């Protein structure tokens, strides 16, 4: 298959991912970037999808990107080739003779200490009571609702920003999330203070929410962006003097880790996080194992025993 033919196939594959697989815009954009990067790398080679070309590109990915990014880009190419084979546009899938498994370095998920979460939320509510203008008050109502929902549900920042009015049921206390792969899940909100913060926010922004359909609204009346959420966190973390660099995903990590420390079954946490495999969720057991070691090192009663052998 020539490069010009592959370019046409890439366009068709992206249409397939959009219409048949119904992938979200963020995933589609990532697929498009990954496939166009490959096309750019192979240039005008006669056999751009040959085993040798792919092996050369995989080596390039490992030299250029972090293991997690390289793995994602390889997975995208692999899915593209599988589709070509299924559509009988490719006689033989070259990945059948390519070993793509490799070991990623293990990194513990970064969490926010519960004391710092409390400090952050306290700061937002304190600022809200001291707001001097209606605009400041409106912004702080939204900021409090965003931070509360991130911690209360462990949703991804993309899921929070794409939340629509019809998927928020405050009367019964749950939200409906459409996660990766358009998978649907319900997450209960069991804390009265969180529900109150969301209700006050919704009442204040009722007109804009109704017009736009999005639950979280930015200052221009449109959908709140992921970068805006990061800005909200940075602003309030700086305001209360937190040194730790906090990201939206760290709320998700903290949500899972703290629930595990409260002896919540990991399979319930898996469902709440929207993980398709328990293996993904098990990364948090390493965090709690570290916590267990810290506890037993510093809190165990054996530390208070003084042994005097005779």
Q: What would you say this structure looks like, in words?
A:
The termini are far apart. The relative contact order is 0.09. The mean pLDDT is 90. The protein has two domains: 3-97, DNA polymerase, domain 1 (Orthogonal Bundle); 114-296, Intergrase catalytic core (hpI Integrase, Chain A). Helix 3 (51-64) runs antiparallel to helix 4, helix 6 runs antiparallel to helix 8 and helix 11 (248-261) packs across helix 14 (283-298). The chain has a three-stranded antiparallel β-sheet with strand order 1-2-3, with no helix packed on it. It has 14 helices and three strands. By secondary structure, the protein is mainly alpha-helical.
Topology:
Layout: H1 3-19, H2 25-42, H3 51-64, H4 67-86, H5 114-129, H6 134-153, H7 157-161, E1 168-169, E2 174-178, E3 184-188, H8 192-204, H9 206-212, H10 226-239, H11 248-261, H12 266-273, H13 278-281, H14 283-298
Antiparallel strand pairs: 1-2, 2-3
Provide a brief overview of the structure.
By secondary structure, the protein is mainly alpha-helical. It has helices spanning 3-19, 25-42, 51-64, 67-86, 114-129, 134-153, 157-161, 192-204, 206-212, 226-239, 248-261, 266-273, 278-281, 283-298; strands at 168-169, 174-178, 184-188. The radius of gyration is 24 Å and the shape is globular.
């Amino acid at each position: 298959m020539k490069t010009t033919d592959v370019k046409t196939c890439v366009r068709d594959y992206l249409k397939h991912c959009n219409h048949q697989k119904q992938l979200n815009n963020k995933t589609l954009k990532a697929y498009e970037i990954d496939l166009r990067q490959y096309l750019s790398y192979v240039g005008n080679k006669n056999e751009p999808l040959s085993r040798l070309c792919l092996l050369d590109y995989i080596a390039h990915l490992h030299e250029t990107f972090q293991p997690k990014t390289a793995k994602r880009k390889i997975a995208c190419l692999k899915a593209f080739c599988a589709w070509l084979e299924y559509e009988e546009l490719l006689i033989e899938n070259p990945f059948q003779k390519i070993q793509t498994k490799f070991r990623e370095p293990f990194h513990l998920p970064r969490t926010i200490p519960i004391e710092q979460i409390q400090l952050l939320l306290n700061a937002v509510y304190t600022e809200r009571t001291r707001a001097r203008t209606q605009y400041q008050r409106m912004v702080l109502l939204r900021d409090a609702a965003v931070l509360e929902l991130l911690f209360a549900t462990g949703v991804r920042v993309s899921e929070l920003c794409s939340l629509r009015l019809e998927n928020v049921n405050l009367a019964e206390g749950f939200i409906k999330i459409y996660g990766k792969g358009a998978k649907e899940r319900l997450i209960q909100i069991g804390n009265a203070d969180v529900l109150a913060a969301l209700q006050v926010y919704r009442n204040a922004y009722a007109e804009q929410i109704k017009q736009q359909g999005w639950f979280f609204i930015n200052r221009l009346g449109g959908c709140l962006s992921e970068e805006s959420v990061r800005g909200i966190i940075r602003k309030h973390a700086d305001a209360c003097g937190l040194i730790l660099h906090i990201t939206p995903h760290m709320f998700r990590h903290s949500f899972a880790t703290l629930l595990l420390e409260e002896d919540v079954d990991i399979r319930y946490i898996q469902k709440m996080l929207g993980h398709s495999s328990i293996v993904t969720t098990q990364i948090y057991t390493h965090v709690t194992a570290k916590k267990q070691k810290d506890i037993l090192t510093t809190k165990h009663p054996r530390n208070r025993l003084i042994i005097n052998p005779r």
